[in-house]
Design goal:
The chain is an alpha+beta fold. Helices cover about 20% and strands about 35% of the residues. The chain is built from 6 helices and 20 strands. The strands form 5 sheets. The chain has a 5-stranded mixed sheet with strand order 3-2-1-20-17, with helices on one face. It has a 4-stranded antiparallel sheet with strand order 4-5-6-7, with no helix packed on it. A 4-stranded antiparallel sheet has the order 8-9-10-11, with no helix packed on it. Strand 6 and strand 7 form a beta hairpin. The N terminus is likely disordered.
Length: about 300
């Protein structure tokens, strides 16, 4: 008899748990949560993650496509998140960012470097994809990178630019490749790379004076040149002064003089030209920051690059 009573209690408890995760009001709760609460809500379990899909879609559908900003680097996993639609800063926990340098940001993915290894991370969902091959350098200094497509795409190519006093080195790896390919160009033209982008099969790395290094994937050709601005309605455009000032205003309450900031390219659905947000490299780097588009990317379990 005693055994029967315990058995019924266990079954009742299991039923309660099952009904709790399947509550029909979960979606309504998710819709009313602040951003940092929504991120924690999604991490509870698969059912709560699924219930938050509508709320996550609303975040991704925000107008104007202005980037968000993540600030990290105090030797702990607590980061500061600055959104587009609120002046309030959110404290969120992202342990994957500990000890990393952000090299590139595109379509909601960050390309991060740590002790010779690289990986992709989606800030809001914490989806992570490792690049299995170690980078040729164990220390990053004066490197800028970009990638051609999301890491879940078979078309993803990563390009990392390193400048020396006499030449430019470009390291390239394709998804599924077993090693990095090195390309060299004797050039002292480009200094202080501020913009990185990819367009129509080519990577572009551009400095303050609009000198650039570009790499064509199909021919593996590395060249240097100068940017020519046109009135074309397609392609890429630089951020205007007013747009840059608005971004700085959102960070105005923080001391950014010792923060190295990774730029991004904003994909504009309602415009034919994507906007390049510049990098800001600090000589005294105590913290890292990155502009990124808000996305909740998901990957299958153990998905490899």
């Amino acid at each position: 008899m005693k055994y029967t009573i315990v058995s019924r209690l266990v079954k009742r408890d299991q039923m309660s748990k099952r009904e709790w995760t399947d509550l029909p009001i979960l979606s309504s709760i998710a819709d009313r949560l602040a951003l940092n609460e929504l991120i924690r809500f999604r991490a509870v379990c698969k059912d709560w993650h699924a219930a938050s899909s509508a709320a996550s879609d609303k975040v991704e559908a925000l107008p104007d496509h202005e980037p968000w900003f993540i600030l990290y680097g105090d030797d702990n996993s607590t980061c500061t998140l600055v959104t587009e639609y609120s002046t309030k800063k959110h404290a969120i926990d992202i342990p994957e960012l500990n000890g990393t340098t952000c090299l590139a940001s595109s379509q909601g993915w960050l390309l991060l470097f740590r002790e010779g290894s690289m990986f992709f991370l989606c800030v809001l969902s914490r989806a992570k994809i490792d690049i299995p091959e170690m980078f040729p350098h164990s220390i990053i200094s004066n490197h800028v990178a970009f990638f051609s497509a999301p890491p879940t795409s078979n078309d993803c190519v990563v390009s990392v630019l390193r400048q020396t006093e006499t030449e430019v080195e470009l390291y390239v790896i394709r998804r599924g490749a077993t090693s990095w390919t090195k390309h060299k160009l004797a050039s002292t033209i480009c200094r202080n790379i501020k913009h990185a982008a990819f367009l129509k099969g080519e990577f572009y790395f551009i400095d303050d004076w609009y000198s650039m290094v570009f790499f064509e994937i199909e021919t593996s050709k590395l060249c240097h040149g100068r940017v020519v601005c046109t009135e074309s309605e397609t392609g890429l455009r630089f951020s205007q002064v007013g747009e840059k000032n608005k971004l700085k205003e959102r960070l105005a309450s923080d001391d950014m003089s010792q923060v190295s900031i990774c730029g991004t390219v904003i994909s504009c659905d309602n415009a034919r030209r994507n906007r390049i947000v510049p990098y800001e490299n600090s000589r005294v780097c105590k913290k890292q920051g990155a502009w990124f588009q808000p996305r909740f990317h998901q990957i299958t379990q153990n998905q490899s690059w």
